[in-house]
Amino acid sequence: MTFPKLLLITLFLSLQTLFIASQILTSSSNSSSSICKTTPDPKFCKSVFPQTSQGDVRDYGRFSLRKSLTQSRKFTRTIDKYLKRNKGLLSHSAVGALQDCRDLASLTTDYLTTSFETVNVTASSKTLSFSRADDIQTLIIKFY
């Protein structure tokens, strides 16, 4: 299944964009083009963010997390629908593999939800403690 790999790569690059950019850029207003220059894949980054908007790293981070969360939920629903429609036609091992995939997608959704909530809590104070940022970055690295 290449779709789960594509989803994980998309999520990883989106979240990596947030952390790399936050380490390099200040909180001043920036275009997506200037933020994307600091990422491992600027072309992909530019294709994800709206080109017309201005914002700081936190704004782009929230956008990235929100988009990743939406895709993760869609992916989980797609697996659920496929299992419901085809469960009788699939082998036991195929059903098990799809259920494992759904469980991993659900864990991804839970993790992204927690990350999004953390970023939103810090939106009012505009700061994220070093220890909390380190915890989140460690989770991302271990997750991927």
TrEMBL record:
Signal peptide extent: 1-22
Domain Pectinesterase inhibitor: 27-141
Alphabetical list of Gene3D superfamilies matching this protein: Invertase/pectin methylesterase inhibitor family protein
GO MF entry, a single one: enzyme inhibitor activity
Segments passing through the bilayer: none
Pfam family, one: PMEI
Name recorded for this polypeptide: Pectinesterase inhibitor domain-containing protein
Organism the protein comes from: Brassica cretica
Lineage of the organism: Eukaryota, Viridiplantae, Streptophyta, Embryophyta, Tracheophyta
